[in-house]
Design goal:
Blueprint (H helix, E strand, L loop, with lengths): L3 H9 L2 H21 L3 E2 L7 H6 L6 E2 L11 H10 L1 H9 L7 H21 L7 E2 L2 H10 L9 E2 L5 H15 L1 H15 L3 H8 L2 H4 L12 H6 L1 H4 L5 H20 L5 H4 L14 H13 L3 E8 L5 E7 L10 H44 L1
Antiparallel strand pairs: 1-2, 3-4, 5-6
Helix pairs in contact: 4-5, 4-7, 6-9, 8-9, 14-16
Length: 367
């Protein structure tokens, strides 16, 4: 956290002062190594510039102690903004990585998502504070009128806020934005879209062989007989997509979660489809019977309720559909095709009729 005094020192700090601080630090380390005794750095005013820039400058230099100084992202961000000359030299000398700010941005965004996830899945009206240094960091990168929240509650739209932050940075600091995007791609070696898809549990459990411009699960689900036969109860289909959506979210963002091992709960209160409690239970039973998910047990909630825990399943790919259900699907598709053919003729007739009426009107106008 940078107070006003630290900000003023960083703004006026010169590379000569930094070099002198490094020299004094090395001298103290050499003395400690030669004498075999620790040398205090607290009373060395020349070392102060290092304390401003690096977060792990020790109080003493010990014998045979090799210390790799770690830059303080907040201090580096302030130098980058207010003291560009010093920032250029620090990056050229390798004391600060050129993509440090992009790395810090990625860490801050990850922290916001972790906090939001913790709040979302906590009982009651939980409020979690955002680290003040993270708030300061975002304030330095975004537009002056961007309101940076101090806390996150269950009503906070964190993803919407992150979108606005990245939009600001893309406009104001395109180099940092591009570094951030490259950093995100480097995690999986894919494009941001493919990377996001592969983080979803759907890519593993609900994808088949359908070719698409991105490996989303929806084409495979819609084409499967197991999904199509659920069309008799469309709300069951909506519940399936809702359940997969919740599973994706937990698998991709819940810190330390393991959906495939520990499972997740999906209760009527979790369901975002407008259904009665009775319809909800029938829908879940239908989803389980079709092989989309499995029940692995029950757990007791904080309020004493026992809820079922589900894990995603690939059984839907091999589950058999009854002959009656297949017949209904075939009849529906055949009827749909006939209707579409009939519609083409009707549209053609209507166009011809409209054209004739137009010509007649023109003839009347010329009479």
């Amino acid at each position: 956290m940078l107070d006003n005094d630290a900000q003023e020192r960083l703004q006026n700090l010169t590379i000569e002062e930094v070099f002198q601080a490094v020299k004094e630090f090395k001298e103290c380390s050499k003395i400690a190594e030669d004498t075999g005794e620790e040398v205090s750095l607290i009373d060395k005013p020349g070392v102060l510039p290092l304390r401003l820039i690096f977060s792990n400058v020790p109080d003493v230099a010990g014998p045979s102690s090799t210390i790799k100084l770690i830059p303080d992202p907040l201090a580096v961000c302030y130098i980058w903004k207010m003291n560009p000359g010093l920032y250029k030299v620090l990056t050229e000398k390798g004391a600060v990585k050129k993509d440090l700010l992009a790395q810090s941005l990625q860490q801050v965004i990850s922290s916001l998502r972790d906090i939001a996830d913790e709040v979302k899945h906590s009982q009651g009206d939980v409020v979690k504070d955002i680290l003040f240094e993270h708030k300061q960091f975002l304030e330095m990168l975004t537009s002056p009128d961007r309101d940076i929240p101090s806390f996150i509650d269950k009503q906070t739209n964190v993803e919407g806020f992150i979108h606005l932050v990245l939009k600001d940075i893309k406009k104001l600091h395109p180099e940092i934005y591009q570094q951030y995007q490259r950093l995100c791609r480097s995690i999986t070696g894919d494009t941001p879209l493919t990377q996001a898809v592969k983080r979803t549990i759907s890519h593993k459990y609900f994808s088949g062989n359908i070719k698409s411009f991105c490996p989303m699960y929806l084409p495979d689900i819609f084409a499967s007989p197991q999904y199509q036969v659920m069309g008799k109860n469309p709300k069951h289909q909506l519940m399936l997509l809702d359940m997969i959506g919740l599973c994706n979210y937990l698998a991709g963002s819940r810190k330390g979660s393991s959906i495939e091992t520990n499972g997740f709960h999906y209760t009527w209160s979790d369901c975002r489809v407008e259904v009665s409690e009775d319809t909800f239970q029938k829908g879940v039973d239908d989803i389980i019977a079709r092989g989309w998910f499995k029940v692995i047990g029950r757990v007791q909630m904080d309020d004493g309720r026992l809820v079922k825990m589900y894990v995603p399943s690939t059984d839907w790919k091999t589950k058999q559909v009854s002959e009656d259900e297949l017949l209904r699907i075939q009849q529906y598709k055949a009827g749909k095709q006939e209707r579409l053919k009939d519609s083409k003729h009707r549209y053609k007739d209507r166009a011809l009729k409209t054209g004739c009426e137009t010509e007649s009107s023109n003839d009347i106008g010329h009479t």
